């Protein structure tokens, strides 16, 4: 609506001079001429000229009405020239002249400016201010069309629809366009039949032909008219190779060809589609992946199908099934198993679930990929879910086979126990599982549980005679370690009586262990017979160390039966077989020579021991025995030299005390009385609490009598102040011996009270140290640690008594058991310095290492572990423990590189808890240092080997996910995490780790 402003002019009556009136009239006429020229130029679309004339007009004119008209024409000129200031100028006009007749034109132009700039929401801001009757009829249809398009482009379909309905009813210029947009609205509403009619009506118009054809193709796709889609789509691509709609057309064509079974063209078009958009539809990715799978392009299929699994729906379930099949085709059965497993967890499609579960069961069965017991439970699950499946019979056969081969034996046993009427095949599998569980517990030093499972395997009978026999052997091993030698021997005999030499190594070991079980019971005749049988077995010759040990025990047996010459030959054989560990045999050989009065040979043998094995625990004994032999040869000088060497080099050894007594006796017999007195007094001063000190005091009496100096002896004895009892009364001796005999028979309250009574009766008695020691043992065994500590402390008050070493050992153990680990560590270190027996030396080192672990003293852990590992005879279990402790201490000290050698050795046997954790720690080390290849290889090795320690296996699965996350392969990472989530059910921190990483992947 354009209402021309009415310009009213009139005479203004004022008191002006003629000249002034003439000037104003002149200026008015001049400005109006500028206005008229500007207006004429505006009407002839000379907008540049119009702007120039009207701008000059505004500088001269005071006519507000003409200025208003000029401002509108200036803003309109800017509009037609597409000036960036257009909207600002139009809206300034609206604000300056709110009642002007040109307001509707200004708002319409503002909306149009943004419409042509494709800023539809801003255009709507101004269109909404207008009513259709505000505009002249010729603009009303345009207004409806542009408003409808702006609503449509802004996603406000409901608001757009009335505009196009009106245009279809009364429109002329925009009726065809309205028909197109109305069809589009019906398309978005899912009214495909109505939309199709509309698009077909405008398809022949060149303006709408291309977009209408695209929508027609989509509607026909939805209707399943794939041949028509292909025909239309191919024509459109030929006519419009660069059209913006082609991305979607690639999708339609690809999926249509898929429905027609043309995998090649499916791959061609869907690949173009995927490459043309940042957000391809999951359904198209799935279709592309399936086509690639069918064409044998398995790696490509995995890439596309992996992108479909970001949601939990039927499409993802089917994608996982195809992923599993693709992984099978490329030989990656581990990822295949994971994919089948996840597909089987979804229940969107029952048939897919059945197929996926069957394939999962088959994959883990064929590849032993059953780290969390899936190989048993998955078959059970399948039979429970799909009892009527065509695969049921096959699954039953696999289940029995799995029972025989599974490595998660507890899961297998649980499964078997659910079977109400097991047949012989199942019972045979059960027997084997009990045996394997026994081995598992034995490997991890859980001896009592191992015995329970071996016993169950034996009780089941002869479903598998070989397993029963081996269960007897391994139960014997367990009982031997518990010190139940008689029972162990019975099991070894049961094994040997029920099996031939099928397993030559175990057969030989059974003979060897049976011999040892008899030897430990001091059944030397039976032990000798079994050791001789062992060394006659051909396979025994393959292990020189064990064979040498057997000959040493044969020598011991001959020694105990006083067959010294034969024993000497046996020890010679042991030395020749294993020179590196021949110190004991060499000592015994020399000792046997002495028993046969071959003294020079004995001395030569002892010298060889000292020379060849300077760190042997028998060195002090060898030197002492040399001294005794020299005495027999009447060579007192050489004897004195030997005994002095023992005292000088081994002052803490019990042999040193005996050497001191021997020196005193030699000097006395040689009438060297002063030297004798000095030797005896040295024993008394250095070892005041020992039996040797008492003997020395007693022998000194004879020396002083020989000197006729009894007074000096009395003074010496008086100076001891009771520290060394030198006269034992008969009542003292008898009272103690009665108490000791009672205690040795049965260590109970009654016998302990006898010892207490002795101490009360003879507080300074000759046997107080022994009495305190035995009471300490009694209280310790009854867990009365405070009382035990008091008694053992009393033992230590007399240094270097024969019980001090064992007292320190017990006191260290008390501190360890009461969790006072710092004090325990100090005592174990004291024990290390005092230890003369191999058992106490081992206890000291092991106790020190374990105590240091509790207080996190990593330096002491490493020292103690090094000391332990220096023992070549350390048991395999303790070797593993020491290596693990040392490795963990290095890790905690920030010296991970030093931990690697131990971790590498331990990780070779993940059946042990140390091996399982070491495998994880080593893999984590590789990962932390960027060596993803070695980390992944180590993890896969553990998965293949299997381990009963599920927590550390789960940690390795987590690490495997981390490896793939670091490679930006979130799909693989997610699969490992989901597989772990589905199959690991322990209540620990694994679930939290899984969720953290799944959240990370999701973000």
UniProtKB/TrEMBL annotation:
It comes from the Bacteria. Residues 1-20 form the signal peptide. InterPro entries: BamD-like, TPR-like_helical_dom_sf, TPR_2, TPR_rpt. Pfam families: TPR_16 (PF13432), TPR_2 (PF07719), YfiO (PF13525). The keyword Signal applies. TPR repeats lie at residues 431-464, 548-581, 620-653. Residues 622-697 form the Outer membrane lipoprotein BamD-like domain. Keywords: Repeat, Signal, TPR repeat. This is Outer membrane lipoprotein BamD-like domain-containing protein. It comes from Coprobacter secundus subsp. similis.
């Amino acid at each position: 609506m354009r209402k021309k402003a009415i310009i009213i002019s009139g005479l203004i009556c004022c008191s002006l001079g003629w000249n002034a009136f003439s000037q104003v009239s002149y200026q008015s006429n001049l400005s109006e001429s500028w206005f008229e020229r500007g207006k004429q130029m505006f009407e002839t679309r000379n907008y540049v000229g119009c702007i120039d004339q009207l701008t000059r007009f505004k500088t001269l004119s005071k006519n507000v009405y003409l200025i208003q008209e000029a401002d509108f024409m200036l803003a309109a000129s800017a509009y037609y020239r597409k000036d960036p200031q257009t909207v600002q100028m139009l809206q300034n006009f609206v604000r300056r002249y709110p009642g002007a007749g040109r307001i509707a034109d200004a708002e319409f132009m503002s909306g149009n400016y943004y419409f042509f700039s494709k800023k539809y929401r801003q255009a709507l801001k101004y269109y909404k201010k207008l009513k259709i009757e505000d505009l002249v009829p010729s603009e009303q249809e345009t207004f409806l069309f542009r408003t409808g398009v702006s609503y449509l482009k802004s996603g406000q379909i409901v608001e757009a629809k009335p505009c196009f309905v009106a245009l279809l009813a009364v429109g002329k210029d925009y009726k065809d366009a309205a028909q197109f947009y109305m069809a589009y609205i019906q398309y978005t509403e899912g009214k495909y039949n109505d939309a199709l009619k509309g698009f077909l009506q405008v398809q022949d118009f060149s303006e709408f032909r291309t977009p209408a054809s695209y929508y027609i193709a989509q509607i026909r796709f939805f209707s399943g008219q794939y041949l028509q889609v292909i025909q239309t789509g191919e024509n459109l691509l030929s006519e419009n190779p660069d059209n913006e709609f082609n991305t979607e057309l690639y999708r339609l064509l690809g999926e249509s060809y898929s429905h027609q079974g043309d995998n090649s063209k499916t791959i061609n078009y869907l690949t173009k589609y995927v490459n043309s958009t940042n957000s391809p539809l999951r359904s198209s990715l799935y279709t592309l992946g399936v086509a690639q799978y069918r064409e044998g392009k398995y790696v490509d299929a995995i890439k596309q199908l992996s992108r479909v699994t970001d949601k939990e729906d039927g499409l993802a379930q089917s994608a996982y099934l195809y992923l599993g099949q693709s992984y099978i085709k490329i030989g990656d059965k581990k990822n295949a198993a994971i994919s089948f497993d996840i597909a089987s967890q979804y229940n969107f499609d029952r048939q897919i679930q059945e197929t996926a579960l069957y394939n999962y069961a088959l994959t883990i069965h064929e590849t032993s990929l059953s780290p969390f017991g899936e190989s048993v439970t998955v078959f059970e699950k399948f039979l429970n879910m799909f009892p009527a499946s065509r695969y049921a019979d096959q699954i039953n056969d696999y289940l029995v086979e799995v029972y025989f081969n599974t490595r998660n034996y507890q899961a297998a046993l649980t499964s078997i126990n659910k079977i109400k009427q097991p047949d012989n095949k199942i019972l045979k599998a059960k027997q084997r599982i009990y045996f394997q569980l026994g081995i598992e517990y034995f490997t991890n030093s859980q001896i009592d549980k191992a015995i329970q499972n071996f016993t169950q395997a034996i009780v089941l009978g002869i479903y598998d005679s070989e397993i029963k026999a081996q269960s007897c052997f391994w139960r014997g091993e367990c009982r031997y370690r518990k010190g139940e030698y008689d029972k162990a021997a019975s099991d070894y005999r049961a094994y040997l009586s029920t099996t031939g030499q099928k397993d030559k190594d175990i057969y030989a070991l059974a003979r060897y262990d049976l011999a040892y079980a008899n030897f430990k019971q001091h059944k030397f005749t039976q032990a000798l017979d079994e050791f001789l049988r062992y060394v006659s077995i051909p396979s025994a010759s393959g292990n020189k160390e064990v064979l040498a040990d057997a000959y040493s025990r044969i020598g011991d047996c001959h020694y105990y039966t006083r067959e010294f010459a034969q024993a000497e030959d046996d020890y010679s054989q042991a030395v020749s077989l294993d020179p590196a560990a021949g110190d004991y045999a060499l000592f015994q050989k020399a000792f046997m020579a002495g028993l046969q009065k071959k003294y020079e040979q004995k001395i030569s043998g002892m010298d060889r021991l000292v020379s060849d094995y300077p760190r042997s625990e028998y060195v002090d004994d060898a030197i002492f025995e040399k001294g005794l032999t020299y005495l027999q040869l009447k060579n007192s000088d050489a004897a004195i030299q030997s005994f002095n060497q023992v005292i000088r080099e081994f002052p803490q050894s019990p042999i040193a005390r005996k050497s001191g007594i021997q020196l005193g006796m030699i000097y006395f017999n040689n009438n060297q009385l002063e030297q004798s007195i000095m030797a005896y007094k040295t024993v008394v001063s250095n070892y005041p609490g020992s039996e040797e000190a008492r003997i020395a005091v007693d022998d000194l009496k004879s020396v002083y009598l020989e000197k006729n100096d009894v007074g000096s002896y009395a003074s010496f004895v008086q100076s001891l102040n009771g520290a060394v009892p030198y006269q034992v009364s008969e009542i003292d001796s008898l009272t103690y011996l009665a108490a000791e005999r009672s205690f040795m028979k049965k260590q109970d309250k009654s016998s302990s009270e006898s010892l207490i009574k002795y101490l009360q009766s003879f507080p300074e008695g000759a046997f107080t140290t022994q009495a305190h020691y035995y009471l300490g043992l009694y209280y310790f065994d009854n867990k009365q640690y405070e009382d035990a500590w008091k008694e053992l402390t009393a033992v230590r008050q007399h240094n270097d008594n024969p019980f001090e070493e064992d007292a320190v050992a017990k006191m260290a153990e008390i501190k360890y058991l009461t969790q006072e680990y710092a004090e325990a560590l100090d005592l174990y270190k004291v024990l290390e310095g005092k230890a003369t027996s191999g058992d106490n030396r081992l206890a000291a080192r092991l106790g020190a290492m374990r105590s240091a672990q509790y207080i996190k003293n990593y330096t002491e852990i490493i020292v103690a572990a090094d000391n332990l590992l220096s023992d070549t005879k350390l048991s395999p279990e303790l070797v593993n423990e020491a290596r693990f402790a040392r490795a963990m201490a290095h890790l905690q000290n920030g010296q991970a590189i030093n931990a690697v050698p131990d971790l590498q050795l331990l990780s070779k046997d993940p059946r042990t808890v140390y091996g399982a954790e070491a495998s994880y720690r080593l893999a984590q080390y590789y990962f932390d240092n960027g060596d993803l290849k070695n980390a992944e290889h180590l993890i896969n090795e553990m998965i293949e080997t299997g381990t009963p320690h599920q927590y550390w296996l789960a940690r390795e699965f987590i690490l495997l996910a981390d490896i793939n996350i670091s490679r930006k392969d979130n799909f693989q990472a997610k699969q490992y995490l989901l597989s772990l989530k589905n199959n690991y059910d322990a209540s620990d921190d694994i679930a939290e780790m899984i969720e953290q990483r799944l959240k990370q992947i999701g973000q």
